[in-house]
Specification:
By secondary structure, the chain is α+β, with helices and mostly antiparallel strands. Helix content is about 15%, strand content about 40%. Keywords: Transcription, Transcription antitermination, Transcription regulation. One of its GO terms (molecular function) is structural constituent of ribosome.
């Protein structure tokens, strides 16, 4: 007599930057539910501000499956390194933990986060003639539309007012989930 299926959530370790590919591949198997929370944010590049999408937990995602019948398929799926566990035994994750994470992600697999600037943040000017210069946010003016930043330029410090939309904070976009 075989055991009845008992699907539980597990954390799956993947090769770098392939979390969404591994999750999609496993979901296509059937009998495996996946949740790969990702964030979309802007970052400064030599071309200016560019949108990026990354896993909320780099190299990890969550899969709900029956350990007895699906473990080998999950462990040997494309892009998967293994299932997280202790002493070689996969450890299930409580359903409540995944429900809280889904709530934090506002029910989306890809959540756009803006990690705006705060007084005291180190920022980089992303657009305009001062692009690439770094400074410290001194104060917020007229709401969050404009900020005054202290820039060191040509050997002296200057207080400059800049639209906040032209700045990128040095804080990680993942900080949006811990700033409460």
């Amino acid at each position: 007599m075989s055991e009845s299926p008992n699907p539980q959530w597990y954390c799956v370790h993947t090769k770098p930057k392939t979390e969404h590919l591994a999750a999609a591949g496993l979901a296509a198997f059937g009998e495996v539910e996946t949740f790969c929370p990702r964030i979309r944010f802007q970052r400064s590049t030599p071309r200016g501000k560019v949108w990026f999408t990354e896993a909320l937990f780099p190299s990890y995602f969550f899969a709900r499956f029956d350990l007895a019948s699906r473990y080998r398929a999950v462990k040997h799926a494309n892009h998967v390194i293994g299932v997280v566990g202790f002493g070689g035994t996969p450890v299930p994750i409580p359903e409540q933990t995944l429900e809280e994470l889904r709530a934090e992600m506002q029910g989306m697999e890809v959540r756009e986060v803006s990690h705006g600037v705060n007084v005291g943040d180190t920022v980089e000017v992303a657009e305009g003639p001062m692009r690439g210069l770094k400074g410290i946010v001194e104060s917020m003016t007229s709401g969050e539309n404009r900020v005054k930043i202290l820039l060191e330029f040509l050997g002296r410090q200057s207080l400059v007012e800049v639209p906040s939309s032209k700045l990128l904070s040095s804080r990680s976009p993942r900080d949006s989930f811990t700033d409460k």
